[in-house]
Amino acid sequence: MAKQEGINNFDYVSALKESSVQPIGVENELKKSFIAYAMAVNVSRAIPDVRDGFKPVHRRILYAMGELNLNYNQPTRKCARIVGDVLGKYHPHGDSAVYDALVRLGQDFTQRYPLVFGQGNFGSVDGDPPAAQRYTEAKLAKIAEEMLRDIDKNTVDFYPNFDNTLMQPTVLPSRFPNILVNGSDGIAVGMATNIPPHNLTEVIDGTIALLNNPDITIDELMKYIQAPDFPMGGIIMGRSGVRNAYKTGRGNVVLRAKCEIEEAEGGRSKIVVTELPYQVIKEQLIKNMADLVKEKRVEGVADIKDYSDRFGMHLEIIVKKDFNPNVVLNLLYKHTQLQISQGMILLALLDGEPRILNLKQILEAYTAHQKDVVTRRTRYDLGKAEERKHIVDGLIIALNNIDEVISIIKKAEDRADAQEKLIARFGLSEKQAQAILDTRLAKLTSLEVEALKKEGEELDALVAEYNDILAKPERIQEIVIKELEEVKETYGDERRTAISFEEGEIDIEDVVEKEEVVISLTHDGYIKRLPINDYKSQRRGGMGVTAHKTKEDDFVEKMFICNTHDDLLVFTTKGKVYKLKAYAVPEAQRQARGRAVVNLIQVDDGEKVNTIIAVKESSEQGSLIMATRSGFIKKTSVKEFESIRQVGKIAIKLAEGDELIAVEFVNGDDEIITATREGKCIRFSEQDVRPMQRDTQGVRSMKLNDGDYVVDMLIVKPNMQVVSITENGYGKRTPLSDYRLQTRAGKGVKAGIFNNKTGKLVNIKLINPEEDDIIIISDNGTMIRINADEISMFGRDTQGVRIMKTKEEDKVVALAVTPKDSEIEEE
């Protein structure tokens, strides 16, 4: 702000303080304003009231429809008219928000008990939007009138609308617990609510049980209110999450589609879906399943057909021949919205404040509201009865003195004079005198006099009844229970959502047959399984590479036999481990390429799978030994890897720049060899490595010179030989006896002579010359494969011979061992 002429900064500040303008800190003002805004949103827009289960927009819609006399037995009106009334009178927001709320109140797949009867297109379970409000019509559903019943008897408080021209209810009488029956969801500022719908009969039974026994426990309440009951049916898998929600206000419900497996044409099976989980859009579900099939994440699905119509859901999933439909169904449960986990947050407004409530607290708040409604209604009826009794008493006095009354009226100058004289003569009130003057001559017959006397007696009985109700709380409770039972009798129905009392998911292992299989993994990371019997029928002589057809520049690098129920531990260069069941590896034909292993686990960017190990089911497998590039080695019990989440776990703690290079099984008495790029090797006993926890770095395997790093690790096996390869293509076979046993963390011995001619060491591997081939790969993608017995045998301290010719700029980057293939053509 520019400084005024003749006033320095000090004078300006002093003048500002003396004026009516008060300086306010921006930070404090923002805090205060945002808190006020947040509370306004939470209380006035996004969170339902525990008493009627409504947010303001829904309450205003129903109240406005009641004012328009749109009862269930009246004709429908255009939704545009309803929306206009709500906007113009009570809800000054966008028309689309009001129309969307009105539509949801009328959708039988959203509301367990729709409160609005809609005519026209109100949307569909396929996710289709409703027609424009100018085309659709609506009126109150019959059950909605229970929400508004007795609202004109001062049963609830009213407050002014936005322009102070009309009054609107703070809450509806709500003659059933709508907060649970139809549920509610909403996202506020810093909080959210998600209350699923429930069965009306169960909720009312639970409410009555609470009224009869205020000390009832939540477990006892759950005998009546078993779990949510969704409008589209489905199956709730277990009640532990629901029980947590009912006890703490937070939990979850696992909801599964209702599916049956049936026989289809051509000897196939089909999965028939007749009920979907709550709020799952069918068209999106079908698209998701189709995408999963196309991406081969779910195999075995031949076709998906939708026969649904306005009479019900009918979705057919055709299963391919030779695929177990139970396995396919469980995969669909796992990867699609045929099964969902829906969080339950029982958040509602209680005494104007957002609170997370348990089941009993919700019902206690509702019953307190109902007692208040009945009390206020009784007081209102009592006032009306007393008022009418007062009038009747005056009329009886007048009829008993009819001649004098007529004489007074005839002689009076005007109505006011007559009223004053009647009051003075008979001691009447103004209302009684007014009623006498309003009485028609036809009411002066003797029959009418008797009728008035009878009415007076009835009113006396009513006044006494109402006073007795107000004086006895137990009578108010009896009325609440009676009216709840009437609502249940009129609108109650059977539960739609079935409950499976088996906790958790169905174990897929229950439907997978135990059998021996061959798992093969290629250098490029493609994995597959093949029944071992099928394999033996193809290659009687042993495990040939033809068990896995690879692309031209790929090859089988690891092959092992395991059971379909065995666990596969998948290790990556980042030191993480993932777990797969053997049956989760796609079964493929002998000539098939298989599936990329990274599609079966959730690896992070930059992670590369380098080892897969089979852990036999229910067997003691000893320990795993892990080696890193920086020379660390660690032994960890296999038991440490029993529980691994889908996102994997840390198998070894790696320093920055380090990576896991190899993992092998050890049984307690094994010997280990590690080799470095500079050509140093060390052989030591496994017993030199003490067992450690999973999330540790390990110990030194050998001392490394500056710039050197470990390139390979071997577990010594009898009757094997060591084959080595250098970056310039020089290699040799060496007897294991040339590598003497040393103590861990030593400097090791030379694995050969390495110079400018040979280049650095790339890998060492164990081979059986009679059964193995070796594959050598260069950095330009060139690959050669030769029989292991063709490699020359030399002592450890030699340079070997050239095995692969490389150009000056090319280097060998990997050596791999694969089962011998007798079909390889010789150059």
Can you tell me about this structure?
- Helix 8 packs antiparallel against helix 18 and helix 13 crosses helix 16.
- 36% of the residues are buried.
- This protein is an alpha+beta fold.
- The longest helix is centred in the middle third of the chain and has 42 residues.
- The strands form 12 sheets. Strands 29, 30, 32, 35 and 36 form a 5-stranded mixed beta sheet that branches.
- The chain is elongated and about 145 Å long.
- Strand 33 and strand 34 form a beta hairpin.
- Among the domains are: 128 residues, Topoisomerase II, domain 5, CATH 3.90.199.10; 80 residues, Gyrase A, domain 2, CATH 3.30.1360.40; 106 residues, Topoisomerase, domain 3 (Orthogonal Bundle), CATH 1.10.268.10.
- It contains 19 helices and 41 strands.
Fill in the keyword field for this structure.
disordered N terminus; Topoisomerase, domain 3; single chain; five-stranded mixed beta sheet; 19 helices; Gyrase A, domain 2; elongated; 827 residues; Topoisomerase II, domain 5; 41 strands; alpha+beta; four-stranded mixed beta sheet
In CATH, what is the class of the domain at 47-174? Alpha Beta
Class by SSE composition: alpha+beta
What's the main sheet like? 5 strands, mixed
Helix fraction, binned, reads 25-40%
In round numbers, the mean pLDDT is 85
Number of helices: 19
Extract low-pLDDT stretches. 1-7, 535-550, 823-827
- Examine the secondary-structure arrangement and name the CATH architecture of the domain at 47-174: Alpha-Beta Complex
- In total, the number of strands is 41
Q: What is the CA-CA span between the terminal residues?
A: 90 Å
Q: Report strand %.
A: 15-25%
CATH topology of the domain at 47-174: Topoisomerase II, domain 5
Q: Please identify which CATH superfamily of the domain at 47-174 we are dealing with.
A: Topoisomerase II, domain 5
Radius of gyration: 42 Å
What is the general shape?
Answer: elongated
